[in-house]
Amino acid sequence: MVIGDALAVFLMAAAYDILLGEPPAKIHPVVWIGKLIALLRSRLPPTKLGGVVLALMVIAATVLAGHLLVRAAGFLPILPLLVSAFLLKSTFAVRCLLQVSSDIGRMIDEDMEQARSMLPALVGRDTASLSRGQASSAVIESLSENYVDGILSPIFYYALFAPLGLGLEAALAFKAVSTMDSMVGYKTKGLKEIGFAGARADDLLNFIPARLSIFLIALARPFRAGAALRAAFRYHSRTPSPNSGWPMAACAGALGIRLEKPGYYVLLDEGAEPQTSDVPRAVGLMQGAIALSLASALLFLFWT
Predict the structure, then answer these.
(1) How far is CA 246 from the centre of its chain?
(2) Which residue has the higher pLDDT, 124 or 65?
(3) Which of 294, 12, 21 is nearest to 159 (CA)?
(4) Number of domains forming the structure of the chain
(5) Which helix (H) or strand (E) is 200 found in, with range?
């Protein structure tokens, strides 16, 4: 794929995401990646070696399937671009992340019990006893963390490898790893060993984008840029993940609020307790960071 085509594919993918959101589950590539992971996991030994085999097979199958679908669409001039855009769009989810975060934020104000039942769509913690402030913090933490994993990273790898004609393949490979991490990358019985390779690959692939994210978050709130960067460098290591602390701490600094996962970490000790009104502020902040991410990728693709 030449760079002009890569730029066109990116524009179409971004427009699809923003205007239409997620495709139906029946044809969503990530749903099919998930089915493949579940199938292979049931047939592989729950060991680290089994996890390595799982990771290699899922990545290879995802990349190969995407490549072959684009090649198969070559009988019509524009169809490969449309298929590529659809596949690329499946690797990031701008509209979905912002919409779900906004919806849960509103529900925290209106019906806390309903909000607690909705929160597992974003977070993995126990939500049964969360206060409004803790629930608001959970939404903001997840929003900032998923900005990297669900938007910035796939776009980063697409743009990075597009000059080599492998942008789509790189984004799909990242999505395969990310999906593995979300399904089996947990330190629980039965998953700790087989999920090890996927989790470590996810940490590695998010390493650079997570650190880039703090500058995009800072630029999205220029009058709080210094506070965002100071918070990121001071508090990023408090989370168990080597990557999630960077965007979460930057978000806390940009908003001036204290983010906490009870019993695990606190980001920005001196910040104000989060309120439900901080969720729309966080969504606006992330909208700005996402816009900067898209614009940066477009400029890179245009000038490469």
Answers:
(1) 14
(2) 65
(3) 294
(4) 1
(5) helix 196-220
Closest C-alpha to 206, from 249, 247, 265, 165:
247
Identity of the amino acid at 128? A
Is residue 272 within 8 Å of residue 258, measured between CB atoms? yes
Of residues 248, 267, 246, 247, the one with CA closest to residue 258: 267
**Per-residue CA distances from 226 to 212, 215, 247 (Å):** 15, 10, 14
Q: Would you say 145 and 127 are in contact if contact means Cβ atoms under 8 Å apart?
A: no
Phi, psi of 259 (to 5 degrees): -105, 135
Residue pair 92/151 in contact by the 8 Å Cβ criterion: yes
Q: Residue 244 is part of which domain span? A: 3-303
Local structure of residue 137 (DSSP, 8 states): H
Mutual angle of helices 167-184 and 29-43, in 10-degree steps: 50
Residue 113 has pLDDT above 90, yes or no: no
Q: DSSP character for 193?
A: T
Does residue 127 have a pLDDT over 90?
Answer: no
Cα(255)–Cα(278) distance, integer angstroms: 8
In angstroms, the CA 117 to CA 296 distance is 36
Predicted TM-score (pTM) of the model is 0.94
Strands (E), the chain: 259-261, 265-267
